[in-house]
Fold Cupin domain-containing protein.
Amino acid sequence: MKPALLGAIPPQQQGPTEPESFAGRLRRHHAVGRWGAANENQSWTPNPRSVPALWRYAELRPFAVEAAEFVKGEDAALRVITHLNPGHPDYEAAVGHLYSGLQTLKPHERMTAHRHAASAIRFVMEGEGGWTAVDGDRMTVGPGDVVITPGGLWHEHGNDSDDGLVIWQDCTNDPLVNTLGANFFELHPQRSHLGTQDRTDTLARYGGLLLPDTRRRSEASPLFSYPWDKCYEALVAAARAGNHSPFDGVIMEYTNPVTGGPVTHTLGAKLQMLAPGEHTRSHRHTGSVVYVAARGSGLVTIDGVVHPWSAGDTFCVPSWSWHSHANPGTDEAVLFSYNEFPLLDKLGLYTEEADER
């Protein structure tokens, strides 16, 4: 005779197997029958909780300015207006696992140096005199500039101007890192890291056509500064060369100059231009995207709903949502965006589909 499993109940002693009774008894052991949750947790196609959303800069900027008056001291490091997705207002993500928020720096303000496991991309919305320092590289920033902060590196920020706020958009993978239970945060013991390590200039070293020895490759970008003037010039040159996507207009990617790949392990970033009168084809892909309107105005159609946007606005496209862009105006429109594509590429989960209608 085969030995019985320890704790097993003989068949004649088992209770009723009505579905509701079974599920209730099973839940008391913190378990669930997978067949009952298959449609929710095992969808036939991507079914994200995030929904399309648009945040108007003209509406949120007054809150960012007001917060600068009463959020002070060490709390100022987190003086950020977070964009919450209506599909999950309890989860601090603009869409998918992408964080988005507006940070304000007052004149002569300086934040304590810190580092964290999450990676960040910053897109400057407005203001002069702002600066950020990453791993010893202190960079002056202005509107349209992009700064990369790879995870784990000391960094700090400030505003050297005598008057006027500096506002930039924080674009991070905090939601992903927090979901994975892998985030760390640390303040620098000397308040600033700039006096404790050699100063560098990553733009001078990695921002040209020729690069230093790249045999010691790094997945994270060694270039932290992507000035607007240089990036916009590259976009215009690509337009002249006929580099055009039927889905995105003229689109270029911010890249790691050493690897040619994305600027961080999990976050990618792009800059695109829509010509006057342009209407792109519709497509969808896995991976969410957050867009920031850098210049001009236009329309984005997401799952059949048209959303008008103008300079400064932020909008999101959830994973596997049909979307297309249009510029009905007479001037060019430029969009900055960041996405989850590098992570999905590494996992073998990125896929794309065009609307053939």
Q: What stands out?
A: Confidence is low (pLDDT under 50) at residues 1-14. The helical segments are 19-27, 34-41, 57-70, 174-179, 202-206, 228-240, 341-347. The chain has seven helices and 23 strands. The chain has one domain: 53-354.
